[in-house]
Amino acid sequence: MSSLPGIRHRFVDTNGIRMHVAEQGEGPLVVLCHGFPESWYSWRHQITALANAGFHVVAPDQRGYGQTDRPSAIDKYSMLHLTGDIVGLLDALGEPQAVIVGHDWGAPVAWNCALMRPDRFRAVVGMSVPYFPRGPVSMTTAMRQAAGENFYVIYFQEPGKAEAQLERDVRATMFGVLYAASGDAKGAERWQPVVAQHEGLLSASSAPPATLPGWLTAEDLDFYTAEFQRTGFTGGLNWYRAIDLTWELMAAYNGATIAQPSLFIAGREDGVLTFPGMNLIMAGLSQSLPGLRGSLLIDGAGHWVQQERPEQVNAALVEFLRAL
Fold this sequence. Notes:
alpha/beta
C-alpha cells in the first residue's frame, strides 16, 4: 500500500463486499471512481488537492480491484452491482449525499449513480467517457456493428484470453498501456482500440520508450505493477464481460437523461474520443446532460487526463465543486 502523506486507508462493508478506500479531508463528500486497469492510486494528485479545498475525498478500489473483494462470477459485475457498491459506500460513511467523479470505467459508474440515485448524488463529473443513454441494441452488438470483431471490448469477452497476455509481464503491460494511451505517444506508438490480428492487445510494434514520461514515476509504475501482480486482471476485465447483462437489466432507463449539475473532462488526445459514433455522442451531450456546466478538453493530454494534467484537472474540479 502506497503511503502518500495525509491519505488514510480503511475498509468498509458495502453491498455484500469488503471495499478498500483511501480518504482525506473534511467537508462535503466527493467520491472518486477509477477506471481500467487502475486503482484508488489513479487519483493520487486529486485526493489531497480536493481535501485542501475543503472536501471529504474518498477514492475506493472498486469491485474486482486492489484490496477490494473480487467476486469470481461475471454476473456480479453488472452496473447495478457497481453503482450499488457506491451507494453502500455512502451508507457506510454515514453520508446522505455526495458529488461523484469517475474516469474511464469509473465514468459510467458515476453517470449511472447520478442517473439512478439523484437523491444521493447531487452532481457528477465524468472523465474520458461521456454519458450516453442506453440504446436499442446490446453493447456488444453495437460495438460489433461499429468496429468489428477485433474491437478490444469484444476481444476481452472470452475469459482467460486477455489475462494470458496482460499477466505475462505485468510491469511491461502497465507501462505499455499507460504510455500508449497517453498524450505522449505519437503515431505508431499510440494505443489502437482495434486489436491487431494475432498480436493481441499490446502490439509488438508499439513498445513504450526506454524512459518514463514526465507524469509517470518509477514509484507510480511500481505501485500499479505490484497491485496487478497480486490480483491479476480478471476482476477489471469482468466489468467488460458484464456489459450485455447491464444492458438487459437497465431497459427501464432507455434514453434517460441526467438532470444534476455535470461536467465532462477529457484529454484532447484521448483515443476514446475517436471511437466510432463518439462524435455524435459528444454533439448530443447537452441533450443527454441537461445540467451540463461545461465540457473541458485539455490540450496535449491523452486518456489518463487526471494523471497527465493534474493541475488543470484539479482547478476544474475545485471550480465546479465550489459553484454547486
